[in-house]
Amino acid sequence: STTPLKVAVTGAAGQIGYSLLFRLAAGALGDRPIELRLLEIEPALPSLEGVVMELDDCAFPLLAGVEIGADPAAIFSGVSVAMLVGAMPRKEGMDRADLLSANGKIFTGQGKALNDNAADDVKVLVTGNPANTNALIAMSNAPDIPNERFNALTRLDHNRAKTQLAKKLGVPVTEISQLAIWGNHDDSMYPDLFNTMVGGKSAAEQVDQAWITDEYIPTVATRGGAIIKARGASSAASAANATIDHMHDWLNGTSDWVSMSVPSDGSYGVTEGIVSSFPCTVTDGQYEIVQGIELNDFSKERIAASVARLEGERDQVKQLGLI
Ligand code: NDP
Fold this sequence. Notes:
Belongs to the LDH/MDH superfamily. MDH type 2 family. By secondary structure, the protein is α/β, with parallel strands linked by helices.
């Protein structure tokens, strides 16, 4: 198609934005023209202007236009894709309720602005943390947009889980299929290897349970912290990459399971309505939660624990009047 895809990115002047925008403009979502709509808070707009100068200086053939601003209604006008990256970072002395409340204001406002201004086919992906609950807030404040158009990012956990397994077994990542992250994007997320295939054989039969419990899951869960320790800054390029992977697959379809945090329809006993990660496939721009997967007791227990975290967050934002 030659009509530009209108893509909004919030928090566009941040670390993740700095990786994300250049890849979007280079055609990462597909070989079609793209128009970028970049939202920032007022104080970050001068810095965002510098990023736009750099986008100009790349002379990207597919970049049909860039608009920046601090008003979500204007920026979200007519967009078919919204990547909600900007969020309030947790500051010294802030507890989880403070964080949920600060972000609640951002995501209620953005949900309403999407509801009133985005294109009818809009797909919304939340990367800003706490991503699953921020997505729930935005979704709840956008009654005219079907719930299933609100997703949150667990693809980075998925990609991390894939590479850690590939390294353990000494195979390329392309040998791995049917891997999936379940639950919340926090340290309770659960990568299920019991349904994963490596080179046509069960992954779980090629590793032992102690490795899964004591090494694999903790390594994937604490990877963000390990990166902060090593590079003195949080993961940004890989978070941008995962954001692109998720949206690319949602728009263009999948050939294998991918991990997507989506509003639960009650599948696998996951509380209906919360935004939780599931193995999904995508056809014609619509995702489906993979059905008929057998979960063992270990998996069921881990998933229930992560779902309990999501329920706790939901209860808190409900109490704050955000949903
Ligand atoms: P980043 O670009 O590094 O991160 C943005 C958000 O993504 C954070 O909430 C961060 O969570 C989250 N995130 C999700 N996965 C990851 C991951 N694997 N690694 C790192 N982060 C991850 O933050 P910056 O502070 O550089 O930039 C944020 C920008 O957002 C600022 O420019 C700010 O002005 C803007 N902002 C814009 C708003 C708007 O457009 N209305 C509203 C609020 C902020 P975590 O905090 O847990 O690391």
